[in-house]
Structure formats: structure tokens, C-alpha cells
Amino acid sequence: IDADYDTEGDGTLTVVASKSIISNNGLLTVTAWDIDLPGSINTGTALHYIHGSQDLQKLGLGGTSKDMHITDAEFGRITAGGGMQLGSQYQGSATVNGITEASSNTIGNLLTLYCKSQLGSITFNGAASTFNSLAAQADNGIIIDVDLTTDAGIMFLDADMDNTAESSPDTHDKIEITMTFERYLKSAGQMTLDATNGGIVPSGGHLYIYSDSGVLINDRYTGASNGKSLHVNADHNKSGSGTFTIKSGKKIDTTHGKLKITAADIQIKGTISTGTSNMHIFTTNSRTMGLGGTTQQFDMEALEFQRISTSGMIIGDAGDNPNGNILLSKVSSSNSNNIVGIV
């Protein structure tokens, strides 16, 4: 369906109240300047694509007004069991404000926000949003000003789709997370944070990253505010299956903020620095912990110790979900010299 075929910016797709577009499990593509949905759209088990009719067109989802605006109530009238993609390689910015769990539940599989143009950015602001699964992909950065949740599947955030450092207008290229006191990112599936050139930059408060199925830090993380903590729980449902991973060649630098990592297992392929603050590592589901040259359910090898610079380290926890036995073997001085203070 192309409601703005001449691309003059005046073509709206309208489904009147009590009426429906039903594709009978067939793929549905809608191209328009705007969408008005007193009625409903249902693609059954198939995918649903929504594209703007003009290059660099702005998309508003929820309580925000842009060129194409889909309110929270309208979003709840769309059923797409095979998932949905909003935007295209020509998409301008997208803004998401207050999409509720009830309205997003009818989007099965994966919701993709796709803003690949050089001006393509995605902003989450106003009120918190919840989706089943989310892939937010932009070429010019992602800004997160509110809490963000996926309650059924993955959360994949890519703020630099072309993975290329470019001049204006493509200069942001970062996942920017702002907060006054604290911010929560939560996912049921694996959470992946990716921003090749701009990196992951939180500022203003304490950041909590929770996933039931693992956390992957794919690019450098740098705290923009001094002394603000980072809390990562890669196995939030305590199932014993969520691994925390930092990619090889990448670095987590909390800028003197405390770092707490909870996970079923850990893969420190890059490096970690907490400056003058300490680091706390513990596992879930009463799993045993192997440190150095030994293998247990949770393993941190001697070379992984060597990649950590911190002012003190706590391993294990006696709280609501205590770990099992800890076995320590073959951690040399060269492995532990970057850990200043008491382990």
C-alpha cells in the first residue's frame, strides 16, 4: 500500500473505526507520509513493514508528534505475529515516547526501528517504553533518556550501523544514556550494546543493565560522570544461563565508579577499569566459581584477572542468591598486579 505515491508529503493511510486491513498471513508493506488508525491492521503470522514516503522523514512512536506519528493506542491496534520494521535505509530520526506493554504485545517476534541514513538517529524519551523484542538500529546515534524494557526477547541497540567514522552530518554514532539519578535497561533475551565509533556513554547517574539471557558489550563503555556506578546482571532471572561478555579490544571504564557484575559466567575478552572504585563479581543459582587455572561453573581465567584494573575486588556474595564453592588456582602476580588493594 502506497498512500503517498508522488512523495509530496500529503498522503495518509487511514483505516476508519471498526474497519481492518487483514493480510491473511501475507507480508504487508505500507508507504505513507502519515498513518491514522481508528481501525486496525492484522498481518497474522507475517511481517509488517512501514516506510516513510520521503527521504529523511521523521517518525514518532507514542506520545510524540513527527512527520509520521503512530500513537500508543494506534500501535496497540496493529497485530504482526511475524514482527514489524519501522523505517528504512532512507529514514531520518525516530522518537519513541511511552509505548506501553499492553500496546506492544501484539507485535510478535521482533520490532525493528531502522534508521540507516546519515541523519538516522533514534531517541527514547518522555516516558518509559516496553516491547516484546527490540532491535534499534541507527547510523547517527541512539539517545536513551528513559527506562527501556523488552519482556519476551532480545534488546539489540546499534548506534553506528555503517561502522564508519564519518564527517558531518553523521557525527554522533554513540549510545548516549542520560539520567538524573538512575536508569534501567532490562531484557528477557540477550542484550547487545553496539556503537562502533561513538561508544557507550552514560552520564548523570547510576546505570542498571539487567538481562535474563546474557549481556554483550560490543564496544567501549566510558562513564561521562565521575564516580557513578554500573550494575550489570546478565542472569537476572537466576536461571544459571546468562553470560556477561566484553568483546576483545574493547574497554569498560567506569570513570571511578563502582562496578557490580552478576552472571552465570563471564568472558572478559577486553579490559575493565574502575579507577579509584572497587569491583564486585558474583554468580547466580548457587553456581561454583573457578578463578585462575581451574574450571568450575563460573570461570574467570588468570588472563581475565590481568585485564582488570580496580581498587579492590569482591568475589562472591552471601545475599539472597549466594554462590557455591570458590576454587582459586594459579593466579600469578603479573595476573593480579592491576588490582590495587584487597581482593
Low-confidence stretches: none
Which band does the percent of strand residues land in? Answer: 35-45%
Indicate the percent of residues in helices: under 10%
How many β-strands, per DSSP? 38
Radius of gyration: 22 Å
User: What would you call the shape?
Assistant: elongated
Strand adjacency order, main sheet? 3-6-10-12-15-18-21-24-27-30
Return the structural class: mainly beta
Question: Mean pLDDT, as a whole number?
Answer: 95
N-C termini distance: 63 Å
How would a textbook summarize the main sheet?
10 strands, parallel
Number of discrete helical segments: 4
Helix and strand layout, with pairings?
Elements: E1 12-14, E2 20-22, E3 28-32, E4 34-36, E5 40-42, E6 48-52, E7 59-62, E8 68-70, H1 72-75, E9 78-79, E10 84-88, E11 94-97, H2 101-104, E12 111-115, E13 122-124, E14 129-131, E15 134-138, E16 142-144, E17 148-150, E18 155-158, E19 174-178, E20 182-187, E21 191-194, E22 199-203, E23 206-211, E24 215-217, E25 221-222, E26 230-233, E27 243-246, E28 251-253, E29 259-263, E30 265-268, E31 271-273, E32 279-283, E33 289-292, E34 298-301, H3 302-306, E35 308-311, E36 313-315, E37 326-329, H4 333-336, E38 339-340
Describe the structure.
By secondary structure, the protein is mainly beta. 5% of the residues lie in helices and 43% in strands. It contains 4 helices and 38 strands. The strands form 7 sheets. Strands 3-6-10-12-15-18-21-24-27-30 form a 10-stranded parallel sheet, with no helix packed on it. An 8-stranded parallel sheet has the order 14-17-20-23-26-29-32-36, with no helix packed on it. A 7-stranded parallel sheet has the order 8-7-11-13-16-19-22. The chain is elongated, with a radius of gyration of 22 Å. The N and C termini lie far apart (63 Å). The mean pLDDT is 95.
